[in-house]
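Quality-control log, excerpt.
Job 1 of 2 completed; input and output follow.
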Amino acid sequence: MMQPGNDQMMVSVENQLAHACEPIADAMEEVHTLLDRQLQMDYSQLKELSEHASRRRGKMLRPILLLLSGRAVGPIGPKHINLAAVVELLHQATLVHDDVLDGAQLRRKLPTASSLWGNEASVLLGDYMLSKAFDLCNEAGDFQASKAISETAGQICQGELLQCVRRKEWQMDEANYLEIIDLKTASLYRLCCYLGSILAGGTREQSDASARYGQAIGGAFQIADDLLDIFGQEEHVGKTLGSDLAQAKPTLPIIHCLRQTQPGVKDSMLDLLGSCGAHGNGLDRTVVEKIHALLKQNGSLQYAWAKARQLTAQAKRELDVLPDCLARSSMMTIADFVVERSW
């Protein structure tokens, strides 16, 4: 595992991602241009909000994977550019809404919209992004793609709702957790890889394999994200951390630790989890350090990390049916990147 604070290793991982994007560099420029155009607003009073939305773009993994999945099996066309922008707008909208729900102050090393303009403006900004995604879907003129995107948006919402209503449900088992992250995170990765392949003329076998690849790395991404929320450092990760503990969301390392049979482990962890919300959305660092220690002592950190790596290995195997090309190699690299990023 990459050690927190290892700047040199983090830069190396970021460089790997940049290299992986080389087969689709021109197409990504078109996606960025399209997103800039879509996020412009008609009123001067809203200029600062729209500029903030444009600046807060992250690594763009979802459009990158849509384009690479297409390039791996055929040519990239205008629909790829259009739908790559759609999935990024959908993703950005969910992040803006998540920041409101989590009370986050920082996202992608910038202040969140909610910390700058309040929750009402932030929710409406997320809604605006969704409306622009709908516009682009209509422009694509592909009913099946639009239907798949709307279904995936519904799955994301259901996953987030399940996580919300199951807060403090510490008896949740691993299967329930994996179902939630499959809905709220992996579903969009799966969609991106499937759309990219099918729009480029991929066979059913290739497109289904690409979808399974996306689903696997989406699961790995979320497990890694949950680990970062507990063990990461904000200056490296670039966003507010600790929200899962503060909001009593069961994640894989916590679930693993609570199912241990050693005397006192479960009771100790439950006591610590119960005191996480005692300071509002803030966290008592002493409590967090004790949780860290229990997770490490019981192998829960290692277990969750191994599960993420298992999913990336599974994702790579799915790529065997794709032609041996630069785009496929890039997809292999990204499978590793999603669990190595920002440690």
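Job 2 of 2 completed; input and output follow.
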Amino acid sequence: MTMLSRTPVRAPVNRARGYSRPLQYLALAGYVVFLGFPLLFLLATSVKTPQELQSGDSSLLPRSFNLNNFGDAIQKANLVQAAGNSLYVAVLTTVIVTVISLPAAYALSRFRTKLRGVATGWILLSQVFPFILIVIPVFLVLKQVGLVNHPLGLVLVYTVWCLPFALWMLRGYVTAVPVELEEAGAMDGASRLRVLWSIVLPLLAPGLVATSLFTFISSWNEFFFALVLIQDPHLQTLPLTLARFVGAEGQVQLGQLAAASLLATIPSLVFFLLIQRRLTSGLMSGAVKG
């Protein structure tokens, strides 16, 4: 009996896969350059001399480094006090929004009540109206309670402003947590509070971090409400101080303004670096905890 030899047939090589990884890295590099170029341009402007800036030279690399812009900006613009005001408002707003939105998001996701539709409608409706339509009613209400020209007035406004989006974000994270994990914990004899603390809360850590980051950056960079509600120069936040920054003879010193703007971005970057590990942590990291 004759045995027929069979030649193994090789599957066609998909050459597109060989080029996909370099293209992905190229696209990522382009995206990083696109995001980082304004920061690099700001850094270059902050170390240029006044003569170089007045000459109209738009080159990225400075001819000589002038670090005096940072010291002059801190002294003239009173950045330390303004940064303290912004930090107070942003941190307090972040804490209040997180404390309120976490149990509210859990209730909206787990309990089906009549208020669920009302709350969802409020979340969506609050994102429709532009800020300029509500700034006058907000100003009048805060004036009646004595919170105009007061940091707590900004905290109250920022809390109401950031709460709907934070609640919407956390609701999605809570919905992604399987209900079976809570039921398994209850079957093992854990109380409701223990289930929430040991199982649900660790799984919501990335959501809490993302919500806190959004709230902090939004409160730190907000300008419009602060412009309307704060008139005292000693209570101005950092965006107001940068917007009203002028040098000698009423002219804007670009070098000092760039240095002040660069210093203003440092707290946001530090806050992001402190919590960025939690953003990349696994959603199921808390499922194995007792």
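Post-run check on job 2. The first helix runs from residue 15 to 46.
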